[in-house]
Amino acid sequence: MTKFPENISAEEKTSSLQQEKTEAETELPFKVLLYNDDWHTFDEVIIQLIKALRCSIGKAKRYAFEAHVKGSAVIFTGELSKCLRITSVLEEIALHTEIVSE
């Protein structure tokens, strides 16, 4: 629980608590899901995964294959800001992604 000095107003306390809540929500672990589709080739998906995740070709192939077989794959877990960057790169070629919180 956050402790405040006695001379701080209720408005300042509320504002501070809201800011802490917002900061905590963006730092929670989030997941990026990649969904299978019928429009992109494996090579297109693999190249974009490498670009978005800065991962090896082997890891990108595994993610692409998992999404193909299971319908979706968790390709990243981490901070919201990183998830947003990754999804924006994947969506450059209209790959279907989703960010979910744990």
Task: Write the SSE topology.
Blueprint: H1 10-27, E1 30-35, H2 42-53, H3 57-70, E2 72-78, H4 80-90, E3 97-101
Antiparallel strand pairs: 1-2, 1-3
Helix pairs in contact: 2-3, 2-4
List keywords for this structure.
102 residues; alpha+beta; Ribosomal Protein L30, Chain: A; three-stranded antiparallel sheet; 3 strands; elongated
Structure description:
Strands 2-1-3 form a three-stranded antiparallel beta sheet. The chain has helices spanning 10-27, 42-53, 57-70, 80-90; strands at 30-35, 72-78, 97-101. The protein has one domain: Ribosomal Protein L30, Chain: A (2-Layer Sandwich), CATH 3.30.1390. It is α+β, with helices and mostly antiparallel strands. The two termini are 23 Å apart. It is elongated, with a radius of gyration of 19 Å.
